[in-house]
Design a protein that fits this description.
rod-shaped; 92% helix
Length: 129
Amino acid sequence: MVNEEKVILMTRMAAFAAREGKKEQKINQYFRSDYVGFEVVKSAISATIVFVVLFAVYAMTNFTSLIDNFYGASLEDFGRQIFTIYLIFLIGYCVISYIYFSFRYAKMRDKMKQYYNDLKKLRKMYEKD
């Protein structure tokens, strides 16, 4: 006779494995600090690329005012101003990335704990029979 509880449990586990299991398992291979650190480094590289692109777009659209400011101020002051804006942008982006990926890792751990608990329940059901 078919045990309904086993079927429901196995169906839920199979659905998790098919939907999210592969993605979650890749994240689960890392320690929290390694995963979050790696993702923050990737985010810092992305933020640098985005900043360069945004600065290039800004420079193209406001070329005349940028040249006027460039000649009116010293090159060192201009570089410091751009670098300060870049650092603020980079730090903000990295902090947001750290929070996001820490939350994502914690969420993954909860899902994997639930999956492993379901495996334990299923094993106990088979041992009982």
